Amino acid sequence: MRRANHPTQWASWADRALASVLGRVSATASEVGPRFPVYADPDTGVWRTTSRGSWTGGFWAGLLWLRALSSGAPEHRAAAADCTRRLRPWLTQDTATRGLVLWYGTAPAAAPGGDAAAARLRDEAARACLASYAPDLGVVPWGDAFGGPRLLARADGVPGLVPLLTYATGGGRTAAYGHLTRHLDLCLSEDPPRPAWQAQPHGGWTGCAEPAPGWSRTAAWLLLGVADGLHRFGEDDRLRAAAGRLAALRLTSGARLVPLAEGGDPGGPVDTSAAAIEAVAALKLAVLARRAGDRREGERLAGQGRRILRELTTVHLSATGALLDGCYDAGRGLATRHELIWGDFFLAWGLAVLTGLVAPFTA
């Protein structure tokens, strides 16, 4: 794909970039039909798809809802609602990634006055995830839906699940807080943070080799979870300390705007999807800083979020609105410079926040 040349004289680069990304959504919808896109070849733009969505299905539904919110077209709303409906089988799957699937696939539509069916699915998902919470471990386990050990705590099991759990009555907020803080305690017990841990039969946790420390999305997923936690639980010393440490890793002026994919190899691939997640987290943390009365920190975080989004749209966005240079799995050599559906979603979400289409904490 050709990369777009975005002139600096554009009055509103974010509006133009969002329109481009949503145009890509329409092209993708025509291509994939009832299937779910996962990643696309950077040269041809052709999508690798799944029939059920895997752990990424909610991001496709979320993109369709963003398109519907932007256009107001009844046919776009119908397409988004249909896609969200097709996420229902994930209610019963044993995986913490239900947070990614069933939060990001419903939250953009489930606000008051939004889509009633999406709101009902969100609430059902919250109860289902609460039923999977293991108080003795302090987490909703990673689960066995994708094979491998079930009793894991992984950084990518945090985002989405934290806000989703809070919608479950009868202990949802307690479970959400426990799930978040357990993951923070584990992942941040090492430097760099270790993204995956396995529970031991007689207590305690052991660090997993994969994903390895240095994985690009570790800090990104945790930052997003902490931002959602602080929004829902208010000022909390434990969460605030974690936010400060994670922000120091990724949201400072000295950090690369687009992180290396894995292992810190300067010659290796980067991961634009991690950068897009971090941009959304920065915009959320900026709101929280201003709410706490720290206007200077709020402006700094908002500025960092804008800089990341500008970098993504000027350097890594194709002429057709695809966010390129995402890395699915560097270790396995899988889709290392590709368009990733969650990268597209978080880029679109960040741009939608900047342009006022959505509020930062809608999803």
UniProtKB/TrEMBL annotation:
The keyword Transmembrane helix applies. It comes from the Bacteria. Keywords: Membrane, Transmembrane, Transmembrane helix. The keyword Membrane applies. InterPro entries: 6-hairpin_glycosidase_sf (IPR008928), 6hp_glycosidase-like_sf (IPR012341). The chain crosses the membrane at residues 340-361. Gene3D superfamilies: 1.50.10.10. This is Sugar ABC transporter permease.
